[in-house]
Amino acid sequence: MSVHLVAVILLVAGLSLASLLLSMVRSGSGAPVSRVEDLEGKIETIDLIAFRNLIDPDETRLLRKNLPAGAYRKIQRLRTRATIAYVRSVYRNAGLTIRLSQQLLSSADERVTQQAHQIQELSVRTRVNAIKSLFKLALAFALPGATFSIQELAVCYVNVAERIESLCSVTAPLHTSRIAASFR
C-alpha cells in the first residue's frame, strides 16, 4: 500500500469523524423538548459558583503555591473529575436548548424566532467549547501540573442561560424563575 493511499484513507476517516461530530453538536441531544416549559426537570442543575471556582486559574495557583506537590496533584485530580462532571452537564443542557431552539424557529412570533436563533447559535458554540474542554480536562487529569483554561465555556453557558431566561419571559412567564434557577 502506498503512502498516498494511506494518507487518503486517513483523510477520509478524519473528515467522516469530523462530520459525525459536527452533526452531533448541531442536532442536540436528550429528551424531546418542544416548549420552554419542557426544560423543567430535564435541565441538569449546575452550581455556577462552584463550577467557576473549579476552573479559576487564581484558585489553582493558590492551591499549587500552598500545598505540597503530592497533595496538590491529588486535589487537582479530584477538582478535574468534578469539573468534567460539570462540563458533561453543560454539554447535555446545551443539547436540550438546541432541540428547543430548533422547535421554536418555526414560531409565528418573530420575537420567539429571533431568540430561538440566538439560543441555537450560543448552544452550538457552548457544545463545541464543552468538547474542547473535555479534551483539555483529559490532559489535565493525566498531567495534573499542566494548566488549561476553560473559562470561555462558563461564559458561553451563562449566555445561553440568559437567553433562555429572556425567552421564558416571553413564552412561559410563570416558569421563568424555576427554569432560570436550573441553569444556575
If you had to describe this structure to a student in words, what would you say it looks like?
This protein has one domain (3-183). The chain is 76% helix and 0% strand. The chain has helices at residues 3-27, 48-54, 57-66, 69-104, 110-142, 151-171, 176-183. It is globular. The chain contains seven helices and no strands. It has 184 residues and is mostly helical.
What structural keywords apply?
184 residues, mainly alpha, 76% helix
Quick summary:
By secondary structure, this protein is an all-alpha fold. The protein has helices at residues 3-27, 48-54, 57-66, 69-104, 110-142, 151-171, 176-183.
Overall morphology = globular
Main pleated-sheet profile = none
How many distinct beta strands?
Answer: 0
Beta-strand content bin: under 5%
Number of domains: 1
